[in-house]
Amino acid sequence: MDLALISNMRERVGHDDDLWIVGDFAFGPRANHAGYLIEIFEQLPGARKHLIVGNHDLQPTLDLAWDTVTSLIELRDGPLKQANTLCHYPMITWNHARRSALQFFGHVHNNWLGSRNSVNVGVDVWDFSPVQFEDIAARAQDLPPNLHWDDVEPRK
User: Fold this and answer.
1) What is the pTM of this model?
2) Is 146 within 8 Å of 118 (Cβ atoms)?
3) Which one of 10, 66, 137, 146 has the lowest number of neighbouring Cβ atoms within 10 Å?
């Protein structure tokens, strides 16, 4: 699986790109072995590598040479350059949620694709490949609205 993921990343992530791992970089018995993690990490494509910390990201993963390590971040992307929020966990609301911003998450694997404004970007639901903003925004349009959206973000 590791080899397939790295191969898929190399096909989609350019030399000058930023690679964002939205949590759970490594899982299982090898996730505690620094040597194995370094070997995998050094094969990742992209100019800069960022980790959004997930529940399975143990200290050896956190110690890798990431450009950034954080639990949550807002990144401007898309035609409107809206501040999209990346967090390992799905969120029901976030900053700029009513201003066309999306939330990208993982954590739930293939149990839920997300909703119109909060999209699962985990490799489990993207053919084990990384995705770009355009892919995520297109999928968001086909997803249903979150059932609780108006409870937490009433329209003004």
Assistant:
1) 0.93
2) yes
3) 10
Does position 121 have pLDDT exceeding 90, yes or no?
Answer: yes
Kindly give, in sequence order, each residue whose CB lies less than 8 Å from that of residue 150, ignoring residues fewer than 6 positions away.
Answer: none
| 53, 96, 141, 1: CA torsion to nearest 10 | -10
What the chain holds in terms of domains, given with CATH numbers, is 2-143 (3.60.21.10)
pLDDT at site 153: 78
Specify the amino acid at residue 75: L
C-alpha closest to that of 50 among 68, 37, 63: 68
Cα dihedral 50→52→57→61 (10° resolution): 10
From CA 68, how far away is CA 24, in angstroms rounded? 15
Residues 69-88, mean pLDDT to the nearest whole number: 92
- Does residue 96 carry a pLDDT above 90? no
Residue 44 buriedness (CB in 10 A; 0-12 / 13-18 / 19+): middle
Q: Which residue has the higher pLDDT, 52 or 78?
A: 52
